[in-house]
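Worked problem 6 (solution included).
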Amino acid sequence: MATAVAAATPARDEAMLGRTPGTVALRRLARDPAAVIGAVVVVIVTLCAIFAPLIARADPNGQDLTSTLVPPMWIAGGVHAHPLGTDNLGRDVLARIIWGSRVSAIVGISVVAIGGTIGVTAGLLAGYRRGWIDALIARITDVQLAFPLVLLAVAIVAVVGPGLWTVIAAIGLTSWVQYVRVVRAETMSLREREFVAAAEAAGATSRRVIARHLLPNVASAAIVLGTFEIARAIVLESSLSFLGLGVPPTTPSWGGMLADGRQYLDTAWWTALFPGLAIMIAVMGVNLLGDGLRDALDPEMRT
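Solution. The predicted structure is:
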């Protein structure tokens, strides 16, 4: 009894001081320099995606064959009108990077929404109901994991045809298995806890137990996993666009810019370097934020 009271004291003290778990997690996240840097990067990319028409000073698809392969403005021959130079068709590199952030943001968020919804739902059902439902979901998960996810996404896009929503569907339908294993393990542990047994004894239906008692407790793990899945989706979308299986060429994307600039690495390195840096910085920012969220939401680190 004394142990239980002692364990409950910090939580009760936090509640008395108005420190909800969310507030405590945000404060812990704010004290992590790497997580703050990641959050700043994510915010910048998000703002670029939302306000691309206002931020970009040039038309991302505007071609000027008299100004092809103009170097960045700090190099001899560069001009202030094109801060990061132009590509082989005279298109402004900076404007295309800014507009390309919109594709990456849309793909990342949409993929997490699709994969997270399917994976969390399947993981909750498998972990709580067990039996044949658990066995069926486990076999489907094993079959999908037997195929390389990148190869599976490429196959789906190759069959259906390239396009933004095709890419989103292909990546989303291959990412749900990542959630199933994590959520299933969390649910199997939670279903043996006293609060679940009390809810069942009170006559709560399976749907109510899952929605009201299990889902809130696995949400933190799903959120952390979702941040890493956003980074993976950005890389995978860029890979598909690099291979010509992503968004149409008329839509600016970082992977497409890399594909266009690879043949000019010797003479116009900026056409490939800056899109590659955009991918690296965006993915690094999301991963840093994910690491911070993992630590901030870890119950064992709460004091």
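Discussion: Residues 40-301 form a domain with the MetI-like fold fold (CATH 1.10.3720.10).
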